Amino acid sequence: xxxxGGGIVLITAHRRENHGQRLEHILDSIEALSSKFPSHQFxxxxxxxxxxxxxxxxxxxxxxxxxxxxxxDYPQLxxxxxxxxxxxxxxxxxQEEAPTFGVPILVLRNKSERMEGVKKGFAKLVGxxxxxxxxxxxxxxxxxxxxxxxxxxGDGRASQKIEKIIRRFLNG
Length: 172
Prior knowledge:
Blueprint: E1 7-12, H1 21-36, E2 40-45, H2 50-60, E3 66-69, H3 74-83, E4 84-89, H4 92-97, E5 105-107, H5 115-119, E6 123-125, H6 130-143, H7 158-170
Parallel strand pairs: 1-2, 1-4, 2-3, 4-5, 5-6
Helix pairs in contact: 1-2, 1-6
């Protein structure tokens, strides 16, 4: 078994398109990855949707290195994103936020509305096929790399720019 040096893998899955068999494939992947990388912590904040939450708990609650939590507030989520070695997600918002921290993202969907991150190499569409998720995640966890470059969704200074524009407008 490979350990890859440890680290945090942040997982979110909630989209209706991934319910049913697709969710089962995602859960198969997480189980396999948690066994293959026992020194990693797989943190899965649970979406309140009972179709997802109950099934995730049934499948993953007995694995020692898989941590299931209630939904996180924004500061907690950002803290985890900063610490993560990899993100597995079907969330659009996380696809926009993880690039700020240079964290590789595997998108658990066949399509994404956020193709800027895919084109810039921050994210990779992997779908929900277990073998693909396991292969791509194993590559990242074994190599331990972080993505370099400018976040295609912004530089994190939008509020300062907006304030400057408003002050200029109000001051005439």
